[in-house]
């Protein structure tokens, strides 16, 4: 494949995303008002609860087998490394640039969580269908590539709806705490001490003033003793929290995150794909329950356009009022499109030399691209769910997806040159 042919293949999926984003932004304007904030929130909940789980389950149950899961064991490790290195680099960006506390999780998430499903489902088959592709016969390449992309989406979804989900939820808690602090600071100071003494200063009887001031001090001393006692009791209570209570709380938190609909759908999809008799019940022209699979697939097809329309609608608000520093945008772009791809080349080359990877060059290519993708669009879904950093997320997405059109093309060329 020539450079310009590769440029066309790699840029088309990104251009599609940008065009649908523009449509979503237009629908959200006051001129049409078809996608206002309330509508985006409602649609976002449907995407989270219905569309995304359907897409994940339908793709995995149809294309992944037990043998595939065993032979592709390094892909979960590779994806985990993308999150690990991206999270570390995002943490470094946060420490250097010092953004607002409620944006720290968003910045780390955009640095670590790539679009491991939606874009791969479009890019890999498109590359396979091009003339002169280095990945073998067109039909076989497209089928195998779709399986790679589906498996990547499932594993990526697991990390996104656990690790990234926790980051955004923590940011939401920080944001609510900040709002509560600001509200408290706006409340006028009605402290009994100051008001009481002000009123007493106006008294004409000096003896009455002295008695009143003495009583106020006595009340203050009593209150201070109560506060000290309460703080001591609180510290003692914290010390008495047993290890098992902490462990139970931690396990409950993990359970809550694992039961997120997309993660649960990924687990079920892998189970149905790995167990032959379950797969034969739903997948195939002669499957007795194929209508269920077709219905789930139909629902899943709405995931990508809905997420992208929501993203475009959020851009209208973000571009009007967001105050994302240029240094933060530059830091995220540098991590995603310079540092992570270089790290990815080192990881994949080292793993291949150690014999961890199968000989299929398309498999190597998918592993490399996983280090080069723009941020996962599900981050926007999470910011919408928790109502935190939506504007900033929209601006970061705008620039990362615009730059991705060039970055994916350049790095795809480098990857093919390495693999050839």
TrEMBL record:
Keywords: Auxin signaling pathway, Endoplasmic reticulum, Membrane, Transmembrane, Transmembrane helix, Transport. It is found in: Endoplasmic reticulum membrane. Involved in cellular auxin homeostasis by regulating auxin metabolism. Regulates intracellular auxin accumulation at the endoplasmic reticulum and thus auxin availability for nuclear auxin signaling. Belongs to the auxin efflux carrier (TC 2.A.69.2) family. GO terms for cellular component: endoplasmic reticulum membrane. Its main location: endoplasmic reticulum. It comes from Carya illinoinensis. This is Protein PIN-LIKES 7-like. PANTHER family: PROTEIN PIN-LIKES 7 (PTHR31651:SF3), PTHR31651. The chain crosses the membrane at residues 12-34, 46-64, 70-94, 106-127, 147-168, 328-350, 362-383, 395-418. It is a multi-pass membrane protein. Pfam families: Mem_trans. One of its GO terms (biological process) is endoplasmic reticulum to cytosol auxin transport.
């Amino acid at each position: 494949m020539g450079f310009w042919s590769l440029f066309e293949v790699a840029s088309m999926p990104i251009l599609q995303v940008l065009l649908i984003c523009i449509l979503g932004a237009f629908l959200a304007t006051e001129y049409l008002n078809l996608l206002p904030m309330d509508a985006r929130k409602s649609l976002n909940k449907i995407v989270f609860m219905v569309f995304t789980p359907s897409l994940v389950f339908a793709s995995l149950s149809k294309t992944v087998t037990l043998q595939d899961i065993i032979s592709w064991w390094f892909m979960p490790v590779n994806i985990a490394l993308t999150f690990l290195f991206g999270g570390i680099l995002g943490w470094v960006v946060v420490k250097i640039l010092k953004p607002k506390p409620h944006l720290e999780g968003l910045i780390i998430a955009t640095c670590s969580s790539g679009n491991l499903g939606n874009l791969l489902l479009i890019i890999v088959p498109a590359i396979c269908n091009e003339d002169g592709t280095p990945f073998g016969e067109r039909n076989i390449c497209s089928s195998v590539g779709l399986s790679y992309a589906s498996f990547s989406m499932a594993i990526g979804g697991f990390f996104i709806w656990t690790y990234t989900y926790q980051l955004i939820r923590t940011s939401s808690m920080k944001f609510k705490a900040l709002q509560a602090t600001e509200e408290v600071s706006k409340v006028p100071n009605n402290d009994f001490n100051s008001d009481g003494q002000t009123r007493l200063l106006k008294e004409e009887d000096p003896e009455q003033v002295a008695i009143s001031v003495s009583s106020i001090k006595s009340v203050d001393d009593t209150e201070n003793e109560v506060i000290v006692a309460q703080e001591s009791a609180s510290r003692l209570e914290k010390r008495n929290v047993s290890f098992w209570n902490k462990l139970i709380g931690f396990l409950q938190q993990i359970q809550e995150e694992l039961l997120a609909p997309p993660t649960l759908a990924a687990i079920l999809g892998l189970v149905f794909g790995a167990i032959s008799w379950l797969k034969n019940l739903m997948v195939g022209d002669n499957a007795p329950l194929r209508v269920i699979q077709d219905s789930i697939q139909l629902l899943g097809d709405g995931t990508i356009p809905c997420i992208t329309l929501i993203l475009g609608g959020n851009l209208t608000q973000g571009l009007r009022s967001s105050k994302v520093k240029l240094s933060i945008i530059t830091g995220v772009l540098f991590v995603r499109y310079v540092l992570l791809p270089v790290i990815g080349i080192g990881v994949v080359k080292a793993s291949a030399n150690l014999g961890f990877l199968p000989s299929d060059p398309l498999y190597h290519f998918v592993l490399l691209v996983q280090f080069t993708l723009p941020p996962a669009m599900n981050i926007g879904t999470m910011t919408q769910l928790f109502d935190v950093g939506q504007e900033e997320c929209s601006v970061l997405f705008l620039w990362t997806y615009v730059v991705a059109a060039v970055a994916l093309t350049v790095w795809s060329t480098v990857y093919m040159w390495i693999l050839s």
